[in-house]
Amino acid sequence: MHTMKKLAAAAAVSFALDAHAAPADAPPTTGTLVVVPAYGEVKHVNDQAFVVLAIEEQDKDKAAAASRVNQKMKQGLEIVKKEDPNASLKTQGYYTYPVYPEERLLPNGQPVKQRTPTAWRVGQYLQVTTTSLDKLPKTVAAAQKILTLNSINFGLTPETTRQLDDQRIAATYKNLNERIGSIANAMGRRVSDAVIDTIDFEGSGNYAQREQVSMAAPMMMRAKAADMVEVAEPSFEPGETTLQMQVVGKVRFK
């Protein structure tokens, strides 16, 4: 009886090995170098907002339009600083454009070559970077008394991104090991026969694309600014960001 048990156990081991063996007509894999791309990702709730506010004025008098823009931008800056003292502010994109009348044609059908501006458009943008997402609706509503909300974009702070690096690398390396195991199994080899030659965590070369950060597209909102008129607070959902990483491993089988 004891001998029969040994034979049965040996048969079971033999069957298990045969199940993972490569087809009889498969070429030998000794010394084979396999390039293995792998992928990992982590998700995190967005903790930073990038808000762009704007002001634009139009007037026949260029100086008058510019003066109103300068005054209202100053008021808008003061409002944002009061509502969110920790926000980072940056003015940008000051512009002045002439406004021409509709093009008219001469009797011969040719357009008038020289036209005189009938007005001037003057404007400026204010970029606000903040982590005070709980205050954001109130801050934006207060700013909209003077300025226009041009766009808003949510993302992760650099600090949060750095903290997620450990998780992202671990997830990517785990996926690499899983894929090596699957490849070894398909080749009829043991994982212990595989030796990792190179690991490229940049995913460079022709094997994989570089790291990508997926992020929700900015929401575009436009409204006509009204001087010091109470504005209802807008609703924002920060969403989440997915940080991706790709790795390429070169594995050689003994």
From TrEMBL:
Residues annotated as signal peptide: 1-21
One of the protein's GO biological processes: DNA damage response
Zinc-finger listed as a keyword: no
Pfam family, one: SIMPL
InterPro entries hit by this protein: 26kDa_periplasmic_antigen, SIMPL/DUF541
Protein keywords: Signal
Keyword Signal among UniProt keywords: yes
PANTHER family tied to this protein: SLR1258 PROTEIN
Protein name per Swiss-Prot or TrEMBL: DUF541 domain-containing protein
Native species: Duganella lactea
UniProt lineage: Bacteria, Pseudomonadati, Pseudomonadota, Betaproteobacteria, Burkholderiales
